[in-house]
Amino acid sequence: MEKQDGLEMQIKFIALISRDNQPVYIETCLGNDNDNGNGNGNGSDCLNEELKYNFLSHMALDALECAESPTTTTTTTTSTPAGAGSTSPRTMPALLFIEDGVSVYGNVSAAGFKVVIGATNTTCTGTTSTSHLRRLSDAAARARRVYIDWASNPFSLYEPTEGAVLSEKLRAIIREC
């Protein structure tokens, strides 16, 4: 968890969703610095939080399906030596909704694979700083790469420890952002 632009951002969950809207994997921050340091890991509270994040990721599917443009694209112009500008689009996650203090962002790849991220990083007006959007975009891209690496490994379906490897890599992304 970092402070940037005067706002604190903490990712609460990352959900990976297939092109046919089937949740592939949902990783939450529970058990990773979510108990505010008191060490009180109440099982009922953890279960309720986990259910909340699962519900929010399913709500995001509806929001992504209803949205005409599931991602926002910002275009940056860079100067070339000849003085002519070239543009390169960078896809940022779109804010889908804010529910129960969690801002839910979604990003859809060209192949239809969806990454949904829930974070606490917006002001009360629902605006998000550009630096937070870049960090969320980076987290979404990293989560997508981790999943592709895991899914393209022919042994991941047969090796029980491979699921734990995927989970740990996604938890690392959550902790780093």
UniProtKB/TrEMBL annotation:
Domain of life where this protein originates: Eukaryota
SUPFAM superfamilies: SNARE-like
Gene Ontology BP annotations: endoplasmic reticulum to Golgi vesicle-mediated transport
InterPro entries: Longin-like_dom_sf, Sedlin
GO cellular component term, pick one: cytoplasm
Pfam families: Sedlin_N
Name of the molecule in the record: TRAPP-associated protein TCA17
Organism: Pichia kudriavzevii
Top-level taxonomy: Eukaryota, Fungi, Dikarya, Ascomycota, Saccharomycotina
